[in-house]
Amino acid sequence: MDMEALNKLEERISKAIAHIEKLTEAKNQLDVKNRQLQGRVAELENELKDKEISLKTLEKQSIQVSEKVKDKVEGLLNKISSYEQKLT
């Protein structure tokens, strides 16, 4: 091999090493971002679980309130019917 061929080979190797270093840095940055995103996903999953629990609690409360309102309305309707029967 002559010197020119060795110089070209050295240049290609240097470029390849520089490219590998860039790719390694990019990978490291992506790893950091990935860990951040995984953490955010975990936070959001926990928030979702909390919201689901809150929703179930609100649904139960809504059912209870609806039942109480229904009972009160039925009671009032019965009182009205009783009063109307007394009038007739």
Explain this structure to me?
The structure is a single chain. The protein is mainly alpha-helical and 88 residues long. It starts with a helix and ends with a helix. Helix content is 97%, strand content 0%. The longest helix is centred in the middle third of the chain and has 85 residues, at 3-87. The model has no long low-confidence stretch (mean pLDDT 96).
Short structural summary:
By secondary structure, this protein is an all-alpha fold. The protein has one helix at 3-87.
Q: What percent of residues adopt helix (DSSP H or I)?
A: over 70%
Radius of gyration: 37 Å
- Would you list the SSEs in sequence order as H and E? H
Mean pLDDT: 96
User: In what range is the share of β-strand residues?
Assistant: under 5%
The major pleated sheet works out as: none
- Count helical runs: 1
Task: Please provide the count of β strands.
Answer: 0
What general outline do the C-alpha atoms trace? Answer: rod-shaped
Q: What is the structural class?
A: mainly alpha
* End-to-end CA span: 123 Å
Q: What's the SSE blueprint?
A:
Elements: H1 3-87
Key phrases:
88 residues
